[in-house]
Specification:
This is Transposase. The chain is of the alpha+beta class. The protein has helices spanning about 55-70, 90-100; strands at about 5-10, 20, 30-35, 40-45, 80, 105.
Length: about 110
């Protein structure tokens, strides 16, 4: 039995265009985004086939710190960092670094706030 699905495309000229296919293609996009008051932080797209703790730590130490520079220093003690349940977020170096940056103001499995 064929599994059919519709592929949807964005188009200004024909916004309802879709095409039925007889196969499914596995793909994913890894993206990070944040919200602070009325600011949208990011998005940051990761061009990796697989995210690991080392690459996520690299993001924290480089891109995230650059993004946080847009937040006024006086507001920084009130900033909370929240993550989802992805395995790279629980590696020991990532948890240690988030503790250094945010103290107990981060939310995540195996973090100070579940």
């Amino acid at each position: 039995m064929w599994k059919r699905r519709n592929e949807h495309f964005w188009s200004e000229t024909n916004p309802r265009f879709s095409q039925e296919t007889g196969h499914q293609t596995r793909w994913s996009v890894k993206v990070w985004g944040g919200v602070y008051k009325n600011l949208t932080l990011g998005p940051i797209f990761f061009l990796l086939s697989r995210m690991a703790g080392v690459s996520y730590l690299h993001f924290i130490n480089n891109e995230l710190l650059d993004i946080l520079d847009d937040i006024p220093l006086a507001d920084y003690p009130r900033v909370w960092f929240q993550q989802d349940g992805a395995p790279p977020h629980v590696s020991r170096p990532v948890r240690q670094r988030l503790g250094e940056l945010f103290g107990d103001r981060w939310i995540r499995r195996m973090g100070p706030h579940a």
